Amino acid sequence: MILDDYSFSIGDITHVPIVQGGMGVNISARPLAVAVANCGGIGHLSDAMIPAVMDVEFDTNFVRDKLRRYKKNRLSRFNSDKSDVKFDIKALEHATKIHVREAMTQKQKGSIFINVMEKLTMNGPSETLRARLSAAMDAGIDGITLSAGLHTGTLRLIEDHPRFRGVSIGIVVSSVRALNVFLRKSKSTNRLPDYIIVEGPLAGGHLGFGMDWADYDLKTITREVLKFLKKNKLKIPVIPAGGIFTGKDAVKFMKMGCAAVQVATRFTVTQECGLPYEVKQKYLNARLEDVEVNMISPTGYPMRMLKQSPGKYSKVRPNCEAHGYLLDKNGKCSYITEWTRGSQAKTCLCTHMRNYDIWTCGQYVYRLKEVTKENIPGVYQLPTAKEVFDDYRYR
């Protein structure tokens, strides 16, 4: 059997069972999400740093004005107390609406979801999270994937929204325990998730494991989730993610009873992906020994990346007044703490991910060269998203 022998329905739409994972900042860019949706699958936008992304793509001033203002303010620049940093909620909503509406107007079939990270605390965890979720729904997003956190109170933030029961909502988990916590905490909203993404230890970027990630495997976790749902008589589609490199890999999970698969790394080197061309070539030239999992993220989660990432251990001044996406409710970020000490133990994700200097990737990034045409030694021809999609679908 091939992956095209299966289909996946969510809401009123039947999809090819391929979900393109959410990758930030603007790696899962709008053209990529639209292209995957128009192939009949589900494309994900990232909601990471949308105001900054819109400034680049639409020449807006959501962040530029703040950058100029605080660049000259030495007192604020070097003050490690960021408790007074606040996001303009209206601007955040406006930027999100522009981003989502532009994608939705280009979609012809399939679905476009947005990946919303709880760990983007933005010195106002509840207020900013509610704004991002509500704005995406206002702009017509087909679905919301809740990631990077347990989201124990997220559904309650938006249960009064008119589309709360109409939009598809899913949760990313890496264990049955995490799924059970989410279901128990969200029970009061009388709203089950429409799908569950089970992310394994071979995924790219932030992982839902400790540094013992190698002790786990995606198939085992997926079986445990399927068993849990069956035991509790819950019919929720399960979508495994992390290390599913080929259509043959995907079919193995479909035979287990999964509804679809989520893939990301294969799409990082497509023409539509938001990564710069030079970075895509770095991915294509990567070797197994170039991939590492480290603890340099200020989120507290391990993160998989290429060890050559230029932002790794780069000691830049925190610019939280302009960005500040990882500030907790007290205006703290572990990068600020490390920077104040003169340490290089953490990296400033706001600066480095915005500049594409943290090269997050799945474990099998070194295999990209196996499925990509090499034009001249070390220089590869970038495939289209449709070519990657069809490779999963038919081979």
Fold blueprint:
Elements: E1 8-10, E2 13-15, E3 18-20, H1 30-38, E4 42-46, H2 50-58, H3 64-71, H4 74-77, H5 89-106, E5 111-117, H6 125-138, E6 143-147, H7 154-158, E7 168-173, H8 176-185, E8 195-199, E9 205-206, H9 218-231, E10 238-241, H10 247-256, E11 261-263, H11 277-284, E12 291-294, E13 303-306, H12 334-341, H13 349-354, E14 374-376, E15 379-380, H14 385-394
Parallel strand pairs: 3-11, 4-5, 5-6, 6-7, 7-8, 8-10
Antiparallel strand pairs: 1-2, 9-13, 12-13, 14-15
Question: Summarize this, please?
Answer:
Helix content is 34%, strand content 15%. The chain has 395 residues and is α/β, with parallel strands linked by helices. The strands form five sheets. It has a six-stranded parallel β-sheet with strand order 4-5-6-7-8-10.
Cα-atom Rg, whole angstroms?
Answer: 20 Å
Which term fits the overall shape? globular
What do we call the CATH topology?
TIM Barrel
Number of helices: 14
CATH class: Alpha Beta
CATH architecture: Alpha-Beta Barrel
Find the count of extended strands (DSSP E, 2+ residues).
15
Main sheet strand line-up: 4-5-6-7-8-10
Class by alpha and beta content: alpha/beta
CATH superfamily: Aldolase class I
Quote the beta fraction.
5-15%
- Mean pLDDT rating: 94
Which regions have little confidence, pLDDT < 50, spanning 5+ residues? Answer: none
Instruction: Tell me roughly what share of residues is in helical segments.
Output: 25-40%
Alpha-carbon distance between the two ends? 9 Å
- What is the string of helix and strand elements? EEEHEHHHHEHEHEHEEHEHEHEEHHEEH
